[in-house]
Structures are given as C-alpha cells and as structure tokens.
C-alpha cells in the first residue's frame, strides 16, 4: 500500500467535496467532453498525466473563513468488474455544524465504461442533534431517467431525463481530475438530489506553485466559469488522485477551503 502524508496537524476537517458541484443557477445542458486547447509554450503535451482511476483514501482539513471547521474523508473503492464506489464523510466541529451541513455521509456507485464514469445510484445522509435526513437516488439508464426519494421537496422527487455524460456531485470531482489539461475548457451536466445544473470550468494555461500545509505543489488551477458570485477553484497535481485544494469563494471572499493533508493508495 502506498501512503503519502502531506501535513499532520491534529486537524479534523471539513466539508464538501461536492463543493465543486454545488449548484447556482440552472443552465442549458452541454456535452460532458472537455474541449482541448494547445498546451502553454514550454509545456510539453505529455507533461500532464491525468491520474488512473485506482482505490484511494484522502483526508482533508477544512477551513471556514480562515478558521478550522472540521474534516472530510473521501474514498474510492473498486467493487468488481467495471463497478466502483466513491464515498465522502464530513464531520464538522461544533459551532460550524450549520455551515458544513451537520455530519454528512454521501456516496455514489458508478461504472467505469472505457474511461467514462456512469452513475448508478446515489445516497446522502445528514445527521444532527435534533434532525436527520436521508435521500437515495437511482440512475436508470435503461429507462433513461434518474429519481430521488426521501426527505426532499415533492418537486425534487420527480423523474429527471438522463443524458449521456451526466455526473453526480462526487463523480464531478473525479471527472475533472480525469479531463483537465493545461488550457482546456470542461463542460458537465450535474444531476444529483433531484436537481440539474450546468457546470463549466476552465483550466489555467500552465501550472503554478501552491502551498498546502508544509508542502508545495506544482499544480494546475481549474476554476468554474458560470458560478456567478459563488466561485469554485480546484488545484490538481500530477501523481495525486484527488484535488490538493478546493476553495469556494463567495462575493470575492474565501468561504470554505479544503486542503489535502493525507492520502493512501493501493
């Protein structure tokens, strides 16, 4: 087993890996295929190597407006054949529960079909002192619809027509890791928890130095271009299977900041 420790303060961290997938305003659908752009001068086309889909466990420190807020763990596991599963567990520190959605567990079962990540089912569980909510969803590709049941508004339990390339919140992060190249534009349709949103991203033309804890990475910045006042920025590095940092900014100010502190791969 390969284990890389990135920064080990006794931090417990934060939240939403799906922060990269949090919706803003509804948009028109676009194909989930990255539009490649020529690499920046001096950067060879083969210099960027997207990670291979492999099992791993990643732990993030979470900051909320610059203060420690909890921790999050993301796991990718291989079930059998083409079937995989991605899980996220978020534990918010007391006082930040309302910000981080209390304690959150989320998972997506998906198939890897020749490099395309196809969601099959999705589950979200929120736990709190006085309340708990559970939502489950099924992507029925034979029928061509997705549907969620549980603690939802009635309008969000209606069937949603599926399109090729549709992604859940958790899969969106894996898809960005797979698709991003220096200078590329990425387009996805987010279909999760009874909602449909368009997510468009742009990768920087070249990598930049990013400090995460005590380590510095040569990382590619990928940012959402259609989030309005809610900005989402991810930094991804060669050889690391998950973003090294995910930053959500609101009205020009840092809001939620996830920083990778450890990952283990088989």
Structure explained in plain terms:
This protein has a 16-stranded antiparallel beta sheet that branches. The longest helix is centred in the middle third of the chain and has 11 residues, at 169-179. With 266 residues, the protein is mainly beta. The chain has one domain. It is globular and about 45 Å long. The chain is built from 2 helices and 16 strands. The model is unreliable at 1-46 (pLDDT under 50). The chain has helices at 97-100, 169-179, and strands spanning 2-5, 56-64, 67-80, 83-92, 103-113, 116-127, 132-140, 145-150, 160-161, 185-192, 195-203, 208-212, 215-224, 230-237, 245-250, 253-265.
Sum this structure up briefly:
The chain is mainly β and 266 residues long. Helix content is 6%, strand content 51%. The chain has a 16-stranded antiparallel beta sheet that branches.
Q: Rg to the nearest angstrom?
A: 18 Å
Measure the end-to-end span: 4 Å
What is the typical, i.e. mean, pLDDT?
81
Largest sheet: 16 strands, antiparallel
Number of distinct beta strands: 16
Q: Helices and strands: which structural class? A: mainly beta
Instruction: State the low-pLDDT regions, or none.
Output: 1-46
